[in-house]
């Protein structure tokens, strides 16, 4: 038993830390001070000191799927008490989309490229990543262009956050094409 506990506490990586009195949230934490295992062997208990990020995260992710016409605005509510950074997926389910642009509050992200019919891009505003779905290319051509794995160089603008309360979310495209947009985020609390 002591070896399993020791292995669990010996990592330097951040992990979810949950407490029984707050079952709907977790902290991202790592062990700051290793426990004294002699204390455990002698008394059957020990103290662990964690170093946590300043936020609590909701255990449940929020997801909104929007069918948006070009030049339209939606309102998104973030129930947390701190800003959070969403992951967004723009899908060309209604036809080719040229230069899709997303604006979250006053920050915009513009993809300088074309989404062919039934393809998608994913933008992770927390980890500053942007990737293109190759599923359609594999199905229609049998090919996969690994150069398009990371399309961050084709993105202009700033990665925006959802603030506590109401947020504006706007979509436009150069050719006026409608898009399906999925936002996924975890509410954070101070």
From TrEMBL:
Domain of life assignment: Bacteria
Domain Siphovirus-type tail component RIFT-related: residue ranges: 3-52
Gene3D superfamilies associated with the record: 2.40.30.200
A Pfam entry, by short name: Sipho_tail
Annotated protein name in UniProt: Siphovirus-type tail component RIFT-related domain-containing protein
